[in-house]
Write a structure and sequence with these properties.
The protein is mostly helical. It folds into two domains: 177 residues, Cytochrome c-like domain (Cytochrome Bc1 Complex, Chain D, domain 2); 34 residues. It has eight helices and four strands. It has a two-stranded antiparallel sheet. A two-stranded antiparallel ribbon has the order 3-4. It is elongated, with a radius of gyration of 22 Å.
Length: 213
Amino acid sequence: MIARVRRALVLLVLCAASAGAAELPKVDIPATAAARRHGAETATVVCLGCHNLRFIRYGDLAQLGFNPEALERLRQGKAASDTLKTELTPEMLRDTFGLVPPDLSLMARARDGGPAYIYGLLTGFYQKPDGSVDNRVFPGVKMPDVLGISGVQDPAQRGALEDQARDVAAFLGWSADPHAGERRRLGVYVLTYLCLLTGMLYLSKRRIWSRLG
């Protein structure tokens, strides 16, 4: 298991190193459960066409507030203990793209900018004068324009796609550290306990030394 994690991290670092250094768009990525749920719905339909999220299980998505019926739709017959994986084999992906697309579980932590990088990549596709499609954030990226944003001219439609990309970035930001909220809540309790303990010890010390004095 440790070896697999190391290989995944190495792959992510290599992919990150090959990306361009374009300036990322300034965007606020929501950290709400609703945004993450919407992003999970898009990711399981669009992103899992080529990518894996091997460190996230379908059962983990319950943390985002999905009800049992919604989780059942996302799972599409898979078990809650199954990880989020593409149906395509590595050989099929390599034949199509020339490489196996990286796992997305830790992608938000593998790049400077985190979720903002993912948003910039998804919305950075544009059409060149010759009609081909490229990406401003990652020039020459093998990934296709999965949201179809490069061919959209209507501002309202583009805004809707940008919202969709923002929610996907929010979900992948969560998937990179799904237990962050739990750790923060636990940290509050621990710090509160330590402060109370420090105060009690200080008062005890004063009481003891006052007797000796």
